[in-house]
Automatic annotation (TrEMBL):
PANTHER family: LEUCINE-RICH REPEAT RECEPTOR-LIKE PROTEIN KINASE PXC1, LRR RECEPTOR-LIKE KINASE. Residues 287-300 have a biased composition (Basic and acidic residues). This is Pollen receptor-like kinase 3. InterPro entries: Kinase-like_dom_sf, Leu-rich_rpt, LRR_dom_sf, LRR_N_plant-typ, PRK1-6/SRF4-like, Prot_kinase_dom. It comes from Cicer arietinum. The keyword Transport does not apply. GO terms for biological process: defense response.
Length: 607
């Protein structure tokens, strides 16, 4: 039991939030916060060690005094909520190790001495807010700091000289300027991208004379040694280099403006944008409601200027097994909105040559340079496996990337399992469901070889990312994206980040993919929509908990989808698959089966 005073503190904290009555309805006085029922409260040996209040749409104020009364608290997460205003006084929480505020609307400067008494801090994630002003210099005092994520804010000024042994670092997309301190130059250029005035290693932009104030001027001794003639030569060379850089940038920006214009048809069609706000993941009818339209029709600018100037080069084909197409073909295609997922919006384009494709506008991949993106896409384009959806083409712009795949008329496993309960659903017999489970396992086995060095060879495995061929052979999509996506967005939109591994310990390994596989298996066998797919956990069935309880009470048979009842002879095999799903969703990743073992066990299940 947690001390009663700490229960009171949490209830005080709850009061400080808006709308918490519903969202934190599980926080009630007569039940211990460590009973396992209080949403977001993490305990170890009945000591409250973490508050993981992510993805809950919380807003209002945060009663930091109440939090400071919880003595064992080490992790505080408010990731992806709606808090606004200046940073709360978290600097009162002297023993905190992880402070995660990513994706809120916090704004304004952070006091320079904010971190001075937070000596235990290891992880600071403030990305995706509106923090401004200088990055606090007191960060340099945090000896234990391992992860610092400040990307996508409005920080300005110079980077402090951080000398700690930081493992994960990102300040991209701010307004920082000046040289990158030597201790930080070990991080890749993507960690600094989107700051127009940063210079030095690892950016390709050397610090020129305009930043001379950041460097010590040559000492009189050096002056004497080389003489003033040497200084004049350096100044002339620098001057010429600056002129050359300006000409280069002018030419580049002209080119970029042209690329932007070329793509105006697809990316700036205001009507398409408007309807793409609607999230329509399950019913196919929803796309029909939105209606059909020729994408090129609604934008004069696009059908005119874009059409005349663009060539096939605007779309880069990485796999031409279905034939080649260009931007013009896409512009003339009839478009239907399919949905607006976490990584971007998707629409179907039916081209005149009979080929229908899905164009996915990927948001928040702006960390990636064109060359790296091109190399990744070409690697994806070379994949040939029965259970993997190979992309056809891509389009790269700085602010937006498009990803084109073949349209699969049967839709996703999510749609077939839970969508309009039409004929497709009744076709989901036990043999078909087992075929789907085995196909998913084979696709994963392939990805685990092809992307074996990735932390997350899939990373976004869920039933809407399992498409079905006409014969129900499954095809995995949206795989291996993690290295391409801005971390703050990955946290919000990739399903691996919704696993207990990440929610409780902010750690991700290949075991997170195993957990996601487990959810799909339980979904296939129970026919239930997993509550895990909702970011606030509301709606659907908590399949993991339901299966765990039923197995411990030896009521497994009740879990099988009633629509599979007439496959009674295969009951043992269904229970065998259910047990694999349960093993994959074991909450402790160390005790969870490995992907290889899970795949082997799925392959063993007989009809
Ligand atoms: N190639 C495809 N053929 C047919 N339907 C597709 C195809 N690709 C995606 N879809 C469907 O279009 C809808 C929108 O897809 P999208 O990938 O944008 O979002 P999502 O899968 O719901 O979420 P996320 O972005 O997290 O993967 C989904 O229902 C998906 O199953």
């Amino acid at each position: 039991q947690a001390p009663p005073s700490e229960t009171q503190s949490l209830l005080k904290l709850k009061q400080s939030f808006k709308n918490s009555d519903k969202i934190l309805s599980s926080w009630i006085p007569n039940v211990s916060p460590c009973s396992g029922t209080w949403i977001g409260v993490v305990c170890f040996n009945n000591i409250i060690t973490g508050l993981h209040l992510s993805d809950l749409s919380l807003s209002g104020t945060i009663d930091v005094d109440a939090i400071s009364e919880i003595r064992g608290l080490r992790t505080l997460s408010f990731v992806n909520n709606s808090f606004t205003g200046p940073i709360p006084q978290f600097n009162k929480l002297g023993t905190i190790k992880s402070l995660l505020l990513t994706q809120n609307q916090f704004s304004g400067p952070i006091p320079q001495d904010f971190f001075s008494h937070l000596n235990s801090l290891k992880k600071i994630w403030f990305s995706g807010n509106k923090f401004s002003g200088d990055i606090p210099v007191s960060l340099t005092e945090l000896d234990l700091l391992k992860e610092l994520h400040l990307e996508s804010n409005e920080f300005s000024g110079q980077l402090p000289n951080l000398k700690q042994d930081i493992k994960s670092f990102d300040v991209s997309n701010n307004k920082l300027e000046g040289p990158i301190p030597e201790g930080l130059s070990k991080f890749g250029a993507v960690s600094f991208a989107g700051n127009a005035n940063l210079c030095g290693k690892p950016l390709e932009k050397p610090c020129d004379g305009s930043f001379s104030s950041y460097y010590s001027l040559p000492s009189p001794e050096t002056e004497n040694r080389y003489g003033s003639g040497w200084a004049v030569k350096v100044i002339v060379i620098l001057f010429l280099a600056v002129i050359a850089a300006i000409i280069f940038l002018l030419v580049k920006s002209k080119q970029r403006r042209r690329e932007d214009d070329d793509f105006s048809v697809v990316s700036r069609d205001s009507n398409v944008d408007e309807v793409m706000q609607v999230h329509v993941p399950i019913t196919r009818a929803s796309s029909e409601r939105v209606g059909r339209r020729n994408v090129g029709e609604s934008s004069k600018r696009g059908s005119g200027m874009g059409g005349a100037r663009t060539g096939i080069g605007d779309i880069v084909m990485v796999n031409d097994e279905k034939g080649s197409f260009g931007l013009q073909d896409l512009m003339k295609a009839a478009a239907e909105v399919l949905g607006n997922g976490g990584l971007g919006s998707a629409y179907k384009a039916a081209m005149a040559n009979g080929l229908s494709v899905v164009v996915k506008r990927m948001r928040e991949m702006n960390k990636i340079g064109k060359d790296v993106f091109d190399a990744e896409m070409r690697q994806f384009g070379r994949i040939r496996h029965t259970n993997i959806l190979t992309p056809l083409a891509y389009h790269y712009r700085r602010e937006e990337k498009l990803f084109v795949t073949e349209y699969k008329p049967k839709g996703s496993l999510l749609y077939v399992l839970h969508g309009d309960r039409g004929t497709s659903h009744s076709e989901l017999t036990w043999p078909i469901r087992l075929k789907i489970a085995k196909g998913i396992a084979r696709g994963l086995s392939f990805l685990y070889t092809e992307f074996s060095t990735y932390d997350l060879p899939h990373g976004n495995l869920k039933s809407c990312n399992v498409l079905l061929n006409d014969d129900y052979e499954p095809l995995l999509s949206d795989y291996a994206f993690q290295p391409l996506i801005n971390p703050s967005v990955a946290v919000q939109s990739m399903f691996a980040y919704k696993t207990p591994d990440y929610i409780q310990n902010q750690k991700l390994s290949q075991k997170a993919d195993v957990y996601c596989l487990g959810i799909i298996i339980l979904e296939i066998i129970t026919g239930k929509f997993p509550s895990q797919y909702h970011s606030n956990g509301k709606g659907g069935t908590d399949v993991v908990q339901w299966v765990l309880t039923a197995i411990s009470e030896r009521r497994e048979a009740e879990l099988i989808d009633p629509e599979l009842q007439n496959n009674a002879n295969s009951m043992n095999q269904m229970l065998q698959l259910l047990q694999i799903g349960a093993a994959c969703t074991e909450s402790n990743p160390d005790q969870r089966v490995h992907m290889k073992e899970a795949i082997r066990r799925i392959e063993e299940v007989q009809l």
